[in-house]
Amino acid sequence: MVEQYKNILVAVDGSEQSYDALREAIETAQANDSQLKILYVLNDKLANIPVHLDTMTLYKSVQEHSDYVVDQVQGYLKDTEVSFEIVRLTGSPKREIINYSKENNIDLIVLGSTGLDAIDRFIIGSTTQYIVNHASCNVMVVK
User: Fold this and answer.
1) Of 60, 61, 101, 135, which has the most beta carbons under 10 Å away?
2) Mind listing the pLDDT tens digit for each residue in 120-143?
């Protein structure tokens, strides 16, 4: 077991469970005097939308959601002294979380037990399950 976490990654998607994970990650970062990385991954499945949809409207909506989530995250952190960085990526959330954690020497990943991606969870299993099985560091799942 790690005595002290130095680099903590929390993934947020705008779900209440991800904000619960964020609160837990903030507390853990404060207790360990850690650097907190907050990761928002825009699911690249949106690039494969049907042609009949107005792609500019969809893109604008997705950007607005991303901006909203980042604003919410900043609100949670504004009265803390936690050192943090917000990172936005595009791709498969579960793969981007794993890749980012390996490339950035993350020693703890904090996730909500469920998130917004119900279709992915139904078809191929949850992002959280994938992270738990593939992470090279400790994973904290917040219910």
Assistant:
1) 101
2) 444 445 888 899 999 999 999 998
- Could you state, in order of their start, the residue ranges of all structural domains in the chain? 7-142
Digit-coded pLDDT (tens) for 7-64? 999 999 988 999 999 999 999 999 999 999 999 998 876 555 554 556 666 666 777 8
Count of C-beta atoms within a 10 Å radius of residue 46? 13
The pTM assigned to this predicted structure is 0.84
Distance CA 11, CA 36 (A): 11
Tell me, what amino acid is at 31?
A
CATH superfamily of 7-142: HUPs (3.40.50.620)
Contacts of 39 (CB under 8 A, 6+ apart): 9, 10, 11, 12, 87, 88, 89, 96, 97, 100
Residues 44 and 91: beta-carbon distance below 8 Å? yes
